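dumping these here so i dont lose them again. two proteins, back to back, each one seq then structure tokens. dont judge the mess
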Amino acid sequence: MEPIRIGVIGIGDISDVYLNNLKKYDAVKVVACASRGLEKAQRKAAQHGIPKAYASGDEVIADPEVDLILNLTTPQAHFQYNLAALQAGKHVYTEKPLAATFDEGRQLAGLAREKGLLLGCAPDTFLGGRLQNLRELIDNGTLGRITGGGAYFVGHGHEFHHPGPAFFYQPGAGPLYDMGPYYMTALLSLLGPVQRVCAMATKAGETRVVPSGPCEGQVLPVDVETHICATLEFACGAVVTLTCSFDVWDSELPRLELYGTKGTALIDEKDPISGPNLFGGDLLLRTPEHYRWRDHDRAPEVVGEPWAVVANAHPFNSVSHEENPRGIGLVDMVYAMRNGRAPRASGDMALHSLEVMECILRSASEHIFCEPSTSFERPAPLPLDFPRSEED
């Protein structure tokens, strides 16, 4: 079959990862790209062998030879371009978040359904080997029924490394909207929809000072909560703690862990940002047979026994920040389009994620429980031989 023709809007640093990965799949072909400056777009097109370069996203959307828009613009522009692309009859796959607000996201999802178009959204890291490995432990009963868990993104913000960190402390960003979607999407893909939320939030100060780099000495207004603690009740019955913070200097917390009636599984990395935002890495498991206090009176040497590393046969196991399989969600969406099935990195799951995050902030602000109005179908596991499985 002919490849789906992709037009890319936004060609910042992350675009190279997407463009390099998409070249690996015959089902897609990037035919156009756009930046806010034509020369930059032309350089990117030459670098990756893209036939057309444009000076604006609107030009890519208007191109009749583009079937699908890949939106890699900054978050505040996501809704604008996603809406325009859907109105033009193009399928859309966008970087996270789907939109700046739940209301905007709901407009996009409704328009896509109305026009019979597919809408997909990053992050697609839940399709990586580590989280698919965890999904397998849930589905095959190794962990038993999931009763609870915890997901923790904790650090001290971006002013230590980012050349323009002011945005991260303004509405639409903060730790919840910046890194939270990776953790939220991981949980949703594993456990399904959330049915109730309660949360509290605070911030360490009204300003922050950039310590180094091109903005050294700049005083940043902090107009969002920077330490957020939420409790999520899932429709499956699990109750999970989610903590997202820019106010923590260091921590020994695991990045994500799930508690089942037959065992505990966790992601535990020394790198403080190597959580569900990466595709690969080890998954650790402890079952009743190795419970540290089970036989402590009789066999004290068992106490502190290392966690078992779960064998992993799943694809997409990169642990590199620079080279990773970003874009596999888009490729999966293209095969879903061809084979008449639901995409895994779906707009419905992204919309639910957006609403749950908005519920978290509303609960913290109004001191209430908040019940999301949306739901979604938990995505099917990714086959071990993807994408060959889609071509048989």
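---- next one ----
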Amino acid sequence: MTARVVICRSNPIDPDPRVEKTAHTLSDAGYLVSILGWDRTGELPVRKPLDRSDNSIQVYRLPIKAEFGHGIANLPNLLRWQWGLMKWLSQNRAGYDLIHACDFDTILPALICRLLWGKPVIYDIFDFYADHLRATPVIIKRLIRLLDLRAISWADALILADDSRYAQIEGAKPKRSVVIYNSPRRCSVPPIPERSPHPNTSLNITYIGLLQVERGLIEMLQVMERHPDWSLDLAGFGGDEAAIVPTAERMPNVTWHGRISYDRAMDISQAADILFATYDPGIPNHRYSSPNKVFEAMMLGKPIIVARNTNMDRIVEQAECGIVVPYGDVSALDGALESLHTDPELRQKLGENGQRAYKSTYGWDRMHDRLLTLYSEVITNPVST
């Protein structure tokens, strides 16, 4: 019998690269895969194929209206999401055999299904939830942390995005665990465009991802004000759009793309000279971060600028594929970009180093095998609670 998997994620999968490549990897291996997400706008289709040309993976969305980034004030919406997720999993329990729960805001309903109906649960932690909360009282964060550590122990298997995160979940006792990096699934590098999409600029920089002020976006906009001959492509969505997008739209050398598909994001990144991911190390999750931007830069052969003490600095320095700067230091960021601007040979060398590291250590081929091995173990050798 072919195993049927439902992947649960608290966003609309519009896009979500990690969820999408997990779904494709499982589907290609013969699993029947569906995805259940949360549409906070209430405006997206409640059901659609993951890919227009392939109906084998269906995305279902629960239209529960809510805003991003409102801390404890968003608790009622989170509880409505939990209830909606539990209700869907209960009503459709005959249609899946295994639950792939992404992050803490999907794991509890999944574990209830495990308890009631024996559905195995694989817990995939993208970001440790208690360390991800921005405006939540400390006592609530501590309670969530304790519950999350227990959830890790109750699940049939654990997936982490980086080796460093084992320190973050100290005290948990996972039955099985594996590290699957946020590597891009596309393994062949597309051809480099002959010209930048901004032909009148001398340096093209790109950021595509979550819009949060703690990701160095305000500082980058300040640098762009100093260099009208440089261009920045900016895309994504998130809780701080109101603080970032109006400024970006007023600047003639910044192109705001809004929310875009993953393929479009890769095309824009391929046309860039430099990528950056300067996260605030004051946020615990950032100190253990291993974002797909680093591995995308490696695969595409692009140098990347990251912040010190974010775990990304370790990866970048070991691979010698970018430059590390202190977080929030506009002058240091400016200097790093200027050094890459004036030295095309350095940009090429760092990019080539990244491609070698991707192929030898971080590529999705390796992550593909780890994921399928874990699934095989969970299905063929179940463990008791």
